[in-house]
């Protein structure tokens, strides 16, 4: 399984991180989920 920035789970994790509910370190190592979430969050915070 490969996640993209349009995947529902990625969108959920990005919103939880931006709201301060979770941190990037708390994203599970599930396939490439952590990498994609990190990329999206970093691109939004620039």
Molecular structure report:
With 46 residues, the protein is mainly alpha-helical. The chain is 50% helix and 0% strand. It contains two helices and no strands. It has helices spanning 8-18, 33-44. The longest helix is centred in the C-terminal third of the chain and has 12 residues, at 33-44.
Q: What is the percent of helical residues?
A: 40-55%
Sequence of secondary-structure elements: HH
* Helix count, DSSP H or I runs of 4 or more residues: 2
- Specify the oligomeric state: single chain
Strand content: under 5%
The structure class reads mainly alpha
Termini gap: 28 Å
The 3D shape can be described as globular
Enumerate the spans where pLDDT stays under 50 for 5 or more consecutive residues. Answer: none
Biggest sheet record: none
| Mean pLDDT metric | 97
What descriptors fit this protein?
46 residues
Question: Could you give the topology of this structure?
Answer:
Elements: H1 8-18, H2 33-44
Question: Brief overview, please?
Answer:
With 46 residues, the chain is mainly alpha-helical. The chain is built from two helices and no strands. It is 50% helix and 0% strand.
